[in-house]
Amino acid sequence: MNKILLIIILIALSLPLFAEEPGEFDINAILQKNIKYGWDNATNWENSRKDLQENMTVFKQWENKKQSHLTNCLKSMIAPGWGHFSTRNYLKGEVLLGLQVLLAGSAYYFYDQSQDYYEKYRNAHQIDEINQYYINANSSYRTSGILVGLWIIVWGYTVLDTIPSTENYNRDLWFTLYDEYMNSKITITAQGIQIRF
User: Fold this and answer.
1) Which of the 8 DSSP states describes residue 126?
2) H helices within 1-89, ranges in order?
3) In a structure prediction context, what are the per-residue pLDDT tens digits for the chain, which is 197 residues long?
4) At what angle do helices 90-123 and 127-183 cross, to 10 degrees?
């Protein structure tokens, strides 16, 4: 057992003697493997690395400030237009909010009117009045139902439209943060302070 262990140790110690001589470092040999990234020389490689570091710095800021699609959809479910207001799409948020308020108010008006006609229908004693109040109550009730259906469609559109609105906000936020970063003279990062001239 000791002889086998001694032989293994001697073989392990003699392996470096048969190793190749260390050659000169050749950056081009490495770059040839990475030509698919457009790194045909060491300067391009260094520039790509610098771009990646800049993008990662901006990405960290963007990650902290970007908005969630789900959160904005929930906001629009709770209060129509809230998700659009969050993404600074004020005009669309105001139009959708106004449209939903108009539809909901109109639906309530016609429902209330149908209830008034129905009450008059129940209290009427002449056949002509009974028929007319019944027709008016039915007509107002149907109009109220149609308006509620339209309100639901607009409400659903508002919730779903919050997704592209949030996407546009996050895209614009990226470009804004990137421009601010590139135009700033002094930048504080996790790696330290960077000064641009």
Assistant:
1) S
2) 2-18, 27-33, 42-65, 69-78, 82-86
3) 566 655 666 565 555 444 445 555 555 555 555 555 665 666 776 777 777 777 788 888 888 889 998 999 999 999 989 999 999 999 999 999 999 999 999 999 999 999 999 998 889 888 888 889 899 999 999 999 999 999 999 999 999 999 999 999 999 998 888 888 888 766 665 666 666 55
4) 170
6, amino acid identity: L
Helix (H, G, I), strand (E, B) or coil at 19: coil
Q: What is the distance between the alpha carbons of residues 76 and 93, in angstroms, rounded to a whole number?
A: 9
The tokens describing 108, both together, are 């309530």
Residues 33, 38, 40, 45, CA torsion sign:
negative
**Cα separation, 78 vs 97, whole angstroms:** 12
Residue with tokens 């700033």: 184
* Separation between Cα atoms, residue 114 and residue 99, nearest integer Å: 22
Cβ neighbours, 10 Å, residue 192:
7
Predicted model pTM: 0.65
Name 13's bridge partners: none
